[in-house]
Amino acid sequence: MMNKLYKKLILAFFAVFFLGILGLLTIDKATQSRINNLPTINQIPSFELTNFDGNLFSEKNLEGKITVASFIFTQCEGACPIMSSNMALLQNRFSSSSDLQFISITTDPDYDSKEVLKQFSNKYSTNDNWFFLRGQIEDVVKLSEDGFFLSASLLPIGHSTRLVLIDKDKNIRKYYEGTVDANILELQNDIVTLINKG
Amino acid sequence: MNKQLFFKSAVVSTILSYLLIFAGGLVRVSGSGLGCPDWPKCFGRWTPPTNIEQIPSYIDPTSFNIVLAWIEYSNRTLGVLVGLSIVVLNIIAIYYFRKENKLFYSALFSLILVVANGALGAVVVSSVLNPFLVSLHMILALMLVSVLSYACIESYKLLKPHKLKTRLADKTLLRSLIVFWILIIIEILLGTGIRTNIELVAVENPLMSKGDILNALNSYKYFHSILGFSLLFLSIYIFIKLKKYNQTFIKFLAGFILAMICIQIFLGEMMIFFELPQLTRLFHTWGSSWLVGIVIILYNCINDEQVI
């Protein structure tokens, strides 16, 4: 009886040891995979747009900051309010970080004047790290399609509903469906990964 | 023969369920809960995709991470295996033990629990890992191993009626085991509450360190530590009381409980001092699930019906 018990104890020892190692490797692999899962997709080309306060915003403003970007227009009633609310949520949650900024580019510059964008900004943004940008419609289409690889047909409504994560070296790292909660959580985790990486 | 079959089937289901709790814990601590964004399939497939081209067009590939997908998938696969093993247990119960209420109803109840928890798994995924639902998912799993442990020990008693016969069971000891089990459940609920709150705070404050979050929680978190230390003395009491029993198995269980309480206190303290390392969290949760099942087995080993 005692002998059998000892055998079982030895077996238990190996089982726990094996599971411990398995757990350790799995956790390690999961952590590593989060970094590997953010490949460098493409660098944002040069562009020039104007913020609602009249200041110029170009690709140089992306340097040294982690940026979350979206294409929206203020009269949009479908996805844009959800996307903007989600960006506002992230802006709040990361309010303690100076590494992060947000840009929303209007696909309806005819209607979205600086004043309109300012009003829109007041509705969603609670900090000065969210830029609402406008420019010539041709420039916006070009930037969306050739810079961000996001479709931009039948504007203003045909803009992409994806949010784009851009690293401190102006590289696109990943796209997220801006209206899906699970993807926003994913984006949040990826921002943490990039911030922790430095 | 049939008793043997039921007993073995119950043991297999129990062991698989414990492995399932381990896998589920691994999913939680590694943050793989959304590794598969859909349910029951994973990215529209019965096995996770191995590259991004395999993802169907109607699913957004954003969250595709092959490692996280396979961690989540292993939890689901193990869940299916547990489900199948419990179906086998129920078939045996229906065929041979319809009149044995303890075996029949424990098998049936475990089937209800495993199906309910599988369905809850789907809700957990669609809720984007609501911490309350994740905790409920674990609590149902603890209920499952409790019922299965009960099925194991009751079928063992039928199988070998003389093996566990003890001297006159001590009423106080039996009562203290019941109290001990209830306190462990309360202790687990307190621990789950802490975990739930940490996750709720962490999602709102993604840059806050786990240690800071723990400090920010209400002082009710100390109840978990206080009760943990109190349980140590209760387990020493049970251990000493059971020393006079001559069955090695019963003594072993008593020793196991005492050792497990010590390990749990040690792991709990480690978590406070080292900012909740993931592997420690995993074993802390898993260890608590063992306590729940082992106390049930111990109680039923020495309860009244076994008295000569």
How would you describe what is shown here?
The complex is a heterodimer of chains A (198) and B (308). Chain A is built from five helices and eight strands. Chain A is an alpha+beta fold. Chain A folds into two domains: 1-36; 42-197, Glutaredoxin. Chain A has an eight-stranded mixed sheet, with helices on both faces. Chain A starts with a helix and ends with a helix. The mean pLDDT of chain A is 90. In chain B, α1 (2-30) runs antiparallel to α4 (131-159) and α4 (131-159) runs antiparallel to α5 (171-204). Chain B has 308 residues and is mostly helical. Chain B has helices spanning 2-30, 66-96, 101-126, 131-159, 171-204, 210-216, 221-242, 248-273, 278-302. Chain B folds into two domains: 1-161; 163-308, no CATH class. At the A-B interface, α1, β8 and α5 of A face α1, α2, α8 and α9 of B.
List the helices and strands and how they pair.
The complex is a heterodimer of chains A (198) and B (308).
Chain A: H1 2-36, E1 42-43, E2 48-51, E3 56-58, E4 66-72, H2 79-93, E5 100-106, H3 114-124, E6 130-134, H4 137-147, E7 162-166, E8 171-177, H5 181-197
Parallel strand pairs in A: 4-5, 5-6
Antiparallel strand pairs in A: 1-8, 2-3, 2-6, 4-7, 7-8
Chain B: H1 2-30, H2 66-96, H3 101-126, H4 131-159, H5 171-204, H6 210-216, H7 221-242, H8 248-273, H9 278-302
Helix pairs in contact in B: 1-2, 1-4, 1-9, 2-3, 3-4, 4-5, 4-9, 5-7, 5-9, 7-8, 8-9
